[in-house]
Design brief:
globular, alpha+beta, 101 residues, 6 strands
């Protein structure tokens, strides 16, 4: 994803940012691998109806959604959700460039 950067935050999580804004955070939790991504509240409410998604602790009130130990076909859905998260965080010029593909 254009201009996306991976950083390690103060908690040891891999944080992916574009233009200084986080859109994905991943790392190991008590139950294994965890992936969190930026969403809007409407999408968040739809995703929370699925048993494998949950509201991200501490930042869930901003629309963030998490999943633990995703497998199989869930990754296809996650690929789209991560792309949406990137586009939510990216500046308008990058969104425009992305949509021109």
């Amino acid at each position: 994803m254009p201009e996306a950067k991976e950083l390690i935050d103060g908690f040891g999580h891999n944080t992916y940012k574009v233009n200084g804004k986080s859109f994905v955070i991943s790392g190991e939790g008590e139950k294994g691998f965890r992936l969190s991504f930026k969403s809007d509240r409407e999408t968040q409410q739809l995703l929370l109806q699925k048993s494998y998604f949950y509201k991200t602790p501490y930042i869930g009130h901003h629309g963030w959604v998490s999943i633990e130990n995703p497998t199989g076909e869930v990754w296809t859905e996650l690929a789209d959700l991560i792309q949406e998260a990137y586009l939510r965080a990216a500046p308008k010029r990058l969104v425009k460039k992305w949509n021109e593909k």
